[in-house]
Amino acid sequence: MRTTDGVRIEAVHTSCAQGHADTAIVVAHGFTGSADRPAVRRAAGVFAQYAGVITFSFRGHGKSGGRSTVGDREVLDLAAAVEWARSLGYERVVTVGFSMGGSVVLRHAATHRGSTAGRTEAVAAVSAPARWYYRGTAPMRRVHWLITRRAGRLVGRLGFATRIHSEDWDPVPLSPVEAVPLIAPTPLLIVHGDRDPYFPVDHPRMLAAAGPARLWLEAGMGHAENAAGDELLGRIADWLIAARPAA
Where does the AB hydrolase-1 domain start and stop, copy by copy (predicted)? Predict the structure, then answer.
Protein backbone atom coordinates (compact mmCIF):
# COMPACT_ATOMS: atom_id res chain seq x y z
CA MET A 1 0.00 0.00 0.00
CA ARG A 2 0.95 3.67 -0.28
CA THR A 3 -0.17 6.33 2.14
CA THR A 4 -1.36 9.76 1.07
CA ASP A 5 2.08 11.14 1.96
CA GLY A 6 3.81 8.52 -0.22
CA VAL A 7 5.09 5.99 2.33
CA ARG A 8 5.13 2.35 1.24
CA ILE A 9 3.35 0.16 3.82
CA GLU A 10 3.65 -3.61 4.16
CA ALA A 11 0.24 -5.25 4.62
CA VAL A 12 -1.20 -8.76 4.78
CA HIS A 13 -4.75 -9.92 4.08
CA THR A 14 -6.08 -13.05 5.78
CA SER A 15 -9.43 -14.35 4.57
CA CYS A 16 -12.13 -15.25 7.06
CA ALA A 17 -11.87 -18.91 8.06
CA GLN A 18 -15.48 -18.93 9.24
CA GLY A 19 -17.99 -16.43 10.56
CA HIS A 20 -18.63 -12.98 9.06
CA ALA A 21 -17.02 -12.80 5.62
CA ASP A 22 -18.50 -9.32 5.02
CA THR A 23 -16.41 -7.77 7.83
CA ALA A 24 -12.69 -6.97 7.97
CA ILE A 25 -10.79 -6.39 11.22
CA VAL A 26 -7.81 -4.08 10.67
CA VAL A 27 -5.11 -4.63 13.30
CA ALA A 28 -2.80 -1.78 14.39
CA HIS A 29 0.22 -3.09 16.31
CA GLY A 30 2.19 -1.47 19.10
CA PHE A 31 5.50 0.43 18.98
CA THR A 32 8.40 -1.80 17.76
CA GLY A 33 5.88 -4.36 16.46
CA SER A 34 5.15 -5.37 12.87
CA ALA A 35 2.92 -7.61 10.79
CA ASP A 36 5.52 -10.38 11.21
CA ARG A 37 5.71 -10.36 15.01
CA PRO A 38 4.43 -13.58 16.61
CA ALA A 39 1.91 -11.76 18.85
CA VAL A 40 0.43 -9.94 15.85
CA ARG A 41 0.26 -13.13 13.80
CA ARG A 42 -1.43 -14.89 16.72
CA ALA A 43 -4.01 -12.12 17.07
CA ALA A 44 -4.67 -12.25 13.32
CA GLY A 45 -5.19 -15.99 13.55
CA VAL A 46 -7.79 -15.59 16.28
CA PHE A 47 -9.56 -12.73 14.51
CA ALA A 48 -9.67 -14.73 11.25
CA GLN A 49 -12.03 -17.16 12.98
CA TYR A 50 -14.55 -14.31 13.10
CA ALA A 51 -13.89 -12.07 10.07
CA GLY A 52 -11.37 -11.17 7.39
CA VAL A 53 -8.20 -9.61 8.78
CA ILE A 54 -5.78 -6.93 7.59
CA THR A 55 -2.47 -6.68 9.40
CA PHE A 56 0.20 -4.18 8.44
CA SER A 57 3.46 -2.67 9.64
CA PHE A 58 3.45 0.99 10.62
CA ARG A 59 5.98 3.26 8.91
CA GLY A 60 9.49 2.64 10.19
CA HIS A 61 8.52 -0.88 11.31
CA GLY A 62 9.07 -4.24 9.63
CA LYS A 63 9.22 -4.05 5.84
CA SER A 64 7.39 -0.71 5.62
CA GLY A 65 9.20 2.40 4.46
CA GLY A 66 9.68 5.71 6.21
CA ARG A 67 10.38 6.39 9.87
CA SER A 68 8.16 6.02 12.89
CA THR A 69 6.59 9.22 14.20
CA VAL A 70 5.33 7.25 17.24
CA GLY A 71 1.62 7.76 16.66
CA ASP A 72 1.40 10.98 14.65
CA ARG A 73 1.46 10.27 10.89
CA GLU A 74 0.71 6.61 11.56
CA VAL A 75 -2.94 7.62 11.19
CA LEU A 76 -2.24 7.79 7.45
CA ASP A 77 -0.92 4.21 7.52
CA LEU A 78 -4.10 2.98 9.18
CA ALA A 79 -6.25 4.95 6.74
CA ALA A 80 -4.49 3.23 3.84
CA ALA A 81 -5.15 -0.19 5.41
CA VAL A 82 -8.84 0.60 5.97
CA GLU A 83 -9.19 1.81 2.38
CA TRP A 84 -7.48 -1.35 1.11
CA ALA A 85 -9.94 -3.47 3.09
CA ARG A 86 -12.84 -1.64 1.43
CA SER A 87 -11.26 -2.12 -1.99
CA LEU A 88 -11.26 -5.88 -1.32
CA GLY A 89 -15.05 -5.73 -1.06
CA TYR A 90 -15.66 -5.77 2.68
CA GLU A 91 -18.95 -4.08 3.62
CA ARG A 92 -17.92 -3.39 7.23
CA VAL A 93 -14.40 -2.43 8.33
CA VAL A 94 -13.54 -2.26 12.02
CA THR A 95 -10.25 -1.45 13.75
CA VAL A 96 -8.40 -2.73 16.78
CA GLY A 97 -5.17 -1.15 18.01
CA PHE A 98 -2.67 -2.09 20.69
CA SER A 99 -0.68 0.46 22.74
CA MET A 100 0.62 2.99 20.16
CA GLY A 101 -1.77 1.37 17.70
CA GLY A 102 -4.55 2.00 20.21
CA SER A 103 -3.85 5.72 20.14
CA VAL A 104 -3.81 5.58 16.34
CA VAL A 105 -7.20 3.85 15.99
CA LEU A 106 -8.72 6.48 18.28
CA ARG A 107 -7.32 9.40 16.31
CA HIS A 108 -8.17 7.76 12.98
CA ALA A 109 -11.80 7.22 14.02
CA ALA A 110 -12.03 10.84 15.15
CA THR A 111 -10.51 12.33 12.00
CA HIS A 112 -11.99 10.00 9.33
CA ARG A 113 -15.55 9.70 10.61
CA GLY A 114 -16.98 11.52 7.58
CA SER A 115 -14.81 9.72 5.02
CA THR A 116 -16.45 7.20 2.71
CA ALA A 117 -13.46 4.91 2.13
CA GLY A 118 -11.51 5.68 5.29
CA ARG A 119 -14.21 5.42 7.94
CA THR A 120 -14.51 2.53 10.38
CA GLU A 121 -17.72 1.01 11.76
CA ALA A 122 -16.36 0.15 15.23
CA VAL A 123 -13.15 0.75 17.18
CA ALA A 124 -11.33 -1.11 19.96
CA ALA A 125 -8.29 0.42 21.68
CA VAL A 126 -6.25 -2.01 23.81
CA SER A 127 -3.62 -0.77 26.31
CA ALA A 128 -3.75 2.71 24.79
CA PRO A 129 -2.35 5.86 26.44
CA ALA A 130 -4.78 8.65 27.22
CA ARG A 131 -2.27 11.48 26.96
CA TRP A 132 1.06 12.21 25.33
CA TYR A 133 4.51 12.48 26.96
CA TYR A 134 3.63 10.15 29.84
CA ARG A 135 6.73 9.18 31.84
CA GLY A 136 5.15 7.92 35.05
CA THR A 137 6.43 4.34 34.80
CA ALA A 138 9.92 2.92 34.28
CA PRO A 139 8.98 1.21 30.98
CA MET A 140 7.69 4.50 29.57
CA ARG A 141 10.84 6.32 30.65
CA ARG A 142 12.81 3.74 28.68
CA VAL A 143 10.54 4.25 25.67
CA HIS A 144 11.13 8.00 25.81
CA TRP A 145 14.89 7.42 25.94
CA LEU A 146 14.57 5.19 22.87
CA ILE A 147 12.65 7.90 20.99
CA THR A 148 14.39 11.11 22.04
CA ARG A 149 18.06 10.15 22.26
CA ARG A 150 20.35 9.44 19.33
CA ALA A 151 21.73 6.39 21.11
CA GLY A 152 18.19 5.25 21.81
CA ARG A 153 17.17 5.52 18.18
CA LEU A 154 20.23 3.46 17.24
CA VAL A 155 19.13 0.79 19.69
CA GLY A 156 15.63 0.99 18.18
CA ARG A 157 17.01 0.41 14.69
CA LEU A 158 19.50 -2.33 15.52
CA GLY A 159 17.72 -4.04 18.40
CA PHE A 160 14.05 -3.67 17.48
CA ALA A 161 14.15 -3.16 13.68
CA THR A 162 12.33 0.14 14.23
CA ARG A 163 13.50 3.29 12.46
CA ILE A 164 12.45 6.33 14.48
CA HIS A 165 12.13 9.91 13.23
CA SER A 166 14.53 12.29 14.96
CA GLU A 167 12.33 15.41 14.82
CA ASP A 168 9.87 16.50 17.51
CA TRP A 169 6.17 16.69 16.73
CA ASP A 170 5.23 20.02 15.16
CA PRO A 171 2.41 20.57 15.74
CA VAL A 172 1.59 18.17 18.57
CA PRO A 173 -1.17 15.87 17.27
CA LEU A 174 -4.60 15.50 18.80
CA SER A 175 -4.22 13.40 21.94
CA PRO A 176 -6.14 10.14 22.38
CA VAL A 177 -8.36 11.57 25.13
CA GLU A 178 -9.13 14.59 22.95
CA ALA A 179 -10.04 12.26 20.08
CA VAL A 180 -12.60 10.19 22.01
CA PRO A 181 -15.43 12.78 22.06
CA LEU A 182 -15.13 13.11 18.27
CA ILE A 183 -15.63 9.39 17.58
CA ALA A 184 -19.36 9.07 18.41
CA PRO A 185 -21.65 7.66 17.13
CA THR A 186 -19.05 5.06 16.05
CA PRO A 187 -19.04 2.36 18.78
CA LEU A 188 -15.89 2.45 20.92
CA LEU A 189 -14.39 -0.20 23.20
CA ILE A 190 -11.53 0.53 25.63
CA VAL A 191 -9.62 -2.55 26.90
CA HIS A 192 -6.87 -2.37 29.50
CA GLY A 193 -5.09 -4.67 31.93
CA ASP A 194 -5.00 -3.87 35.61
CA ARG A 195 -1.33 -4.98 35.66
CA ASP A 196 -0.21 -2.93 32.67
CA PRO A 197 3.40 -1.90 33.44
CA TYR A 198 3.35 0.98 30.91
CA PHE A 199 0.06 2.82 31.49
CA PRO A 200 -1.82 2.55 34.81
CA VAL A 201 -5.60 2.28 34.93
CA ASP A 202 -6.19 6.03 35.10
CA HIS A 203 -5.46 6.05 31.34
CA PRO A 204 -8.36 3.79 30.26
CA ARG A 205 -10.67 5.40 32.79
CA MET A 206 -9.84 8.84 31.40
CA LEU A 207 -10.50 7.61 27.85
CA ALA A 208 -13.81 5.98 28.76
CA ALA A 209 -14.97 9.10 30.64
CA ALA A 210 -14.23 11.36 27.66
CA GLY A 211 -17.09 10.12 25.51
CA PRO A 212 -19.49 7.23 24.86
CA ALA A 213 -17.40 4.07 25.29
CA ARG A 214 -17.47 0.58 26.75
CA LEU A 215 -14.63 -0.10 29.23
CA TRP A 216 -13.21 -3.55 29.97
CA LEU A 217 -10.62 -3.64 32.77
CA GLU A 218 -9.02 -7.08 32.50
CA ALA A 219 -7.84 -8.65 35.75
CA GLY A 220 -4.22 -9.79 35.68
CA MET A 221 -3.55 -8.58 32.14
CA GLY A 222 -0.30 -6.85 31.25
CA HIS A 223 0.37 -4.74 28.17
CA ALA A 224 -0.90 -4.86 24.59
CA GLU A 225 -0.90 -7.71 22.08
CA ASN A 226 1.70 -9.75 23.95
CA ALA A 227 -0.58 -9.90 27.00
CA ALA A 228 -3.92 -10.34 25.21
CA GLY A 229 -4.94 -13.99 25.43
CA ASP A 230 -6.93 -15.81 22.78
CA GLU A 231 -10.11 -15.68 24.87
CA LEU A 232 -9.90 -11.89 25.18
CA LEU A 233 -9.11 -11.52 21.47
CA GLY A 234 -12.19 -13.58 20.69
CA ARG A 235 -14.36 -11.38 22.90
CA ILE A 236 -12.98 -8.27 21.20
CA ALA A 237 -13.75 -9.75 17.78
CA ASP A 238 -17.30 -10.62 18.89
CA TRP A 239 -17.81 -7.06 20.14
CA LEU A 240 -16.43 -5.46 16.97
CA ILE A 241 -18.68 -7.59 14.76
CA ALA A 242 -21.83 -6.98 16.81
CA ALA A 243 -21.30 -3.29 17.58
CA ARG A 244 -23.63 -0.83 15.92
CA PRO A 245 -24.12 2.92 16.41
CA ALA A 246 -26.62 3.82 19.10
CA ALA A 247 -30.04 4.69 17.74
Answer: 25-224
Distance CA 70, CA 243 (A): 29
Q: What is the model's pLDDT at position 117?
A: 73
Residue 85: HSE in the Cβ half-sphere, 13 Å Cα cutoff: 33
Residue 247 pLDDT:
58
- Phi, psi of 63, rounded to the nearest 5 degrees: -95, 5
Find the helix or strand (DSSP H, E) in which 237 lies: helix 230-242
* 128 to 61, 144, 176, 180, 195: CA distances (angstroms): 19, 16, 8, 12, 14
Residue type, 15: S
- In Å, what is the CA distance from 161 to each residue of 37, 68, 71, 190, 218? 11, 11, 17, 29, 30
Residue ranges, the chain, pLDDT below 70:
247
